[in-house]
Design brief:
Elements lengths: L4 E5 L12 H14 L3 E2 L2 H8 L10 E8 L8 E3 L3 E3 L2 H12 L9 E5 L3 H11 L11 H7 L2 E5 L28 H19 L6 E3 L7 H11 L7 E6 L12 E5 L7 H16 L1
Parallel strand pairs: 1-3, 1-10, 2-3, 3-6, 6-7, 8-9, 9-10
Antiparallel strand pairs: 4-5
Length: 280
């Protein structure tokens, strides 16, 4: 098993070219993955195999994720500088219309969302353009579509736009700072409970570290001990390597669009390298 996990951010719109626009990249990457003869599968399949719960054939497979849970994930939006942006969800629908369901029967995107509505409102004003583009009303529809899964990206991302210190003395702007029982419960358990309440009867089972910040307390102590108790199966960081049978379930590596690759050619090389290892 050698499965690369690719990650996108809907708020990354710095133009309308591949290197600066995750929506342009996402649509192009769907076509590239398919042209290479690779299969897109849900992140939960990968985790279930790691935990010995399932035996999915994951040879030559790719997992897709996106972070933060902005409205860009689900809705087409008019960016004030760069015009209409096709959402990740609609890009998936476009791909399915072009190729048919049989082309990628397990097509799926895992969306890691920020839970706290007040924090999302602050981020919308501080980091976007104050148009209420960090809402949650689309979560249930996305989940019901079968194309997107809603998962846990913490309570408030410990975002630098929030007042510091936060609860339990939490210094803002760095998820490495989440290093106590109280802070972990505030950021992760509280988010689990909130997202589960919005998505009932389904609850989130996957967690993604904000900023890709993985510390030893969370990955080696709190999550192995408390994660299963609060309903979590695994956690995702960055790492830029494929997931294999020996990967740490509490720090699964991902490739980040715009960071680990910035062109179709770079992604092609990454995917082919992982596929070659899997084939071998």
């Amino acid at each position: 098993m050698q499965v690369p996990i690719l990650t996108y951010h809907g708020v990354n719109v710095a133009g309308n070219e591949y290197a600066g626009n995750d929506h342009v990249a996402f649509a192009a990457d769907l076509e590239l993955i398919h042209a290479l003869g690779l299969r897109i599968v849900p992140a939960q399949w990968l985790v279930d195999n790691l935990l010995g719960r399932a035996g999915h054939d994951l040879r030559r497979c790719v997992v897709l994720t996106c972070d933060d849970g902005s409205n860009f994930d689900y809705y087409d939006l008019d960016h004030p500088e760069h015009g209409s942006q096709r959402s990740f969800f609609n890009a998936l629908l476009d791909f399915r219309r072009r190729h048919g369901r049989a082309a990628q029967p397990d097509l799926h995107l895992t969306a890691f969302v920020i839970a706290d509505p007040q924090a999302r409102a602050r981020m919308d004003v501080s980091c976007l353009v104050g148009r209420n583009w960090m809402q949650q009303e689309w979560w249930r529809a996305a989940q019901a579509s079968g194309l997107i899964g809603i998962e846990n990206h913490s309570w408030d991302h410990n975002h630098p736009c929030l007042d510091s210190p936060g609860p339990h003395g939490l210094a803002r702007g760095d998820f490495h700072a989440v290093a106590s029982e109280e802070q972990a419960e505030f950021e992760i358990t509280q988010a689990q409970e909130y997202i589960a309440a919005q998505m009932a009867p389904r609850q989130p089972r996957l967690f993604c570290y904000p900023f890709g910040h993985v510390n030893d307390f969370l990955s080696r102590d709190w999550l192995p001990r408390r994660g299963p108790e609060v309903g979590l199966d695994a956690a995702f960081g960055d790492g830029a390597t494929p997931v294999n049978a020996d990967s740490d379930r509490w720090n699964l590596p991902r490739y980040i669009c715009g960071w680990h690759w910035r062109s179709p050619e770079q992604l092609r090389d990454t995917l082919l390298a992982a596929a070659d290892v899997a084939a071998a």
